[in-house]
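Extended Data, record Mandelate racemase/muconate lactonizing enzyme family protein
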Amino acid sequence: MEITEINQYHLRYEMSDPFRPAWKPGFEQTEHEVLLFELETDAGISGVTTASGFAGRMDYLELAEMFLVGEDPREVERLVEKMDPLNLWGPRPWHFEVALWDIKGKEAGKPIYELLGGSSDPIPAYASTGERQGVEDRLDYVRDRVNEGFEAVKLRCHGEDPTPDLEVAREVRSEFPDLTLMMDANMGWSVPMVDVEPWSFREALSVARELEDIGNVAWLEEPLDRRNYEGLSRLRERTDVPIAGGEFNNGVHQFREFIKQGSLDVLQPDAVLATGISGGKKVAAMADTNGLEFAPHTWNDGLGFVANLHMLAATDASWCEYPIDPPGWTPEARDFLLANPIVAEDGEVAPPDGPGLGVDLDWDRIESLDIS
């Protein structure tokens, strides 16, 4: 089998309501911008993948063709090694690996997770917020998610003054004493053209101590820079709240460094952003060997979310992050290029069971939204 052609679609989806991401203070998102790639083969099988966020605004079709056209897509490990220069020249290679697995699964007639020894069992999910909101709005949100069956919610705690966010967490804890909470500081990476002063070690420790008092907090996510292995290790030693991170770290070796330096309790690689599906499975094995949790980041578009679902289903993951923060960030907005959005049922999410990624794309919508 050989990859014969790569099609690129630049998609802009108008969201029905604006979304104000915590990691980009002052910005109001009204569009979901995604770059979709379709890898065609001489066997009549195509594999798909996406890049979103900043990578979704780039054009790198020529790079993809340079590395992949003429290659056998079933040789996943070899092609990932071949694409390593993309870490230097441009976009990371991990999302292309997803398309290779999609082809491999379709040829075998099996979902990706099954090729990797996983199962279709539903995965416990936590509702993952994206905005910083006040107490009353966030309490309404939590009530809705609890009524839907979620037993855990992740809140945002971003910016120079975390006091309002900690107050939200306290009020949520007061009304829902048994609800598992996570807190995401988003200090692991910076957004271009957004001026947010990263927390110092002392500030991160102060937040962690506040979360200790709130109680039943599964983790504090990205309280320091993603490459500050030593600082994360010191923080982990001085708090009882587990420390999580890794969504934008690059490659399995950086997660090996987290483990070597004792930096994290919870490893959170994203299959599209950080490791690929194969690499994520390796990180999961490393986590298991070292007594750590594995709970991947999934905040992407619909295909990125599905790719992470397959990785989750093939590993011993503790939680599935389910991004949802209406009215702006809904399953429909997140998964707009899918024929049907991925829906959580009773606080759990099951991986698609069709061949490859196992989902159908809405090609009519894709063609209508393509601005290439």
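Summary. The chain has 14 helices and twelve strands.
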